[in-house]
Amino acid sequence: FEGVQDMACDTFLKICVKCRRRFVMLQIGEAEPFLCDLLRNIQTHTNDLESLQVNTFYEAVGLMVSAEPDTARAGDYLVQLMSLPNMKWQQIMQMARQNPMSLREAEPCRKLANILGTNTSVCTSMKGTFQKQLGLIFNDVLAVYKTYSEICSGVIATDGPVAAKRSDVKLMRSVKRQALRLLETFLDKADATDLKQVGIGFVHTMLDPVLGDYSRSVPDARNAEVLSLFAVVVERFGSTVESEIGTIFDACFQSTLSMITKNYEEYPDHRIKFYSLLRAVVKHCFRAICALSPEQISLLIDSIVWAFRHTERNVADLGLNLLLELLNSIQKSEFVNVFHQKHCVQLIQEIVAAMTDTFHKPGFKLHVLILQHLFSIVADTSVLTVPIWDASQKQYPSNEHYVRDSLTGLLSSNFPNMSQIQVQAIVAGMFDLRKDYSAFKNHLRDFLVQTKEFATENNAELYAEETAHQRENERQRLSAIPGMVKPAEMHDMNL
Hints:
This protein is an all-alpha fold.
């Protein structure tokens, strides 16, 4: 019956999650652990399974292998577990060496994608100890990736973007995608000791086959997984890869930005993963951001502004969080004066524009936090020690006076229904209440409600934070009363 095998494989995986250690222990009445028999007959067990079911099965067995306390024996188990996929892999590699064009055929493509998927499943369960297996196929994986990259780019460049939808191109791109997922899974799952053993050379080896291909490829041939892979590289290796951030930016930044800023619909995966990569760089390699040229910094800020004005909430939230993290890092750096001289007023204007757009109400909390941060920086002469206005145009007593004047002009022109006294009171409150988050937030919310755009709207999203707090307090109150909350709900509360 349809679905029975899926259910059986999923159940097997759940059992292995809970009882993995039992399968590597010698039980009463057995001559060897159950895992040994399972590995010896693994081909029999998987003959009738579909590719996704095979991957689930291998992930489950990988959990058993990971439970073996003897490192040497676990290594032997891993070799046995991967013997069948490795044999198939070597057959295809041998065929490719004799006839490179064979890799363009559909059957080898499917087999390679399935084998890489199986490796990824085992890597998911075995984590860093998968290093031994990855070392066996790593160079071949990069070679296959490079081969398919060249073929796909050539076909799309010749036949146009529509070629990306051809079945043969889709198959080759699926192999590339699986290769990237395997590398990303290993880096994400490995612990610090395993990463130290692998070394930064692992990353250097990937730069040209993966990053170089991304920058050279036409847009429709670029895999979004490249961006998520290098986001994980930055997160796991941290400042160790600071010297490579320039290379990563050269390959990914402008090329991806030109793809995702054409409109709000195309390349959604690239969009999310691009900003996730930028967040990883800001968080873990901030000194590399400081080393960018003024033009590159301006392009970075423009890309963040584009993100938080996006119509999709997840992209807008990514942009706002990225900006807040960037501003917090800049405040603690020697870069604070140079950055705010050029971008402070621009960012205040852009955040106010987003905040006063009814479409962006869900981002209100982050708008408040960013404006509070910027106003605090402007008013603090011990942090911002240079004028941020153009001295050749006009003189101001302080940066605060300059920003007050700029913001008053902006609000007066954008909200003609408000009197000058109202606008001045709003701007004054933004600075006077900046040290009190709740008062500052209420002041901005009152300002929005006064505008014509928000006056006739349902503004519940502006109170989302308070609503969430009330809901959580109520759940906590009920949980203290026996029997008032279901066990399943109690579990969710404790997660």
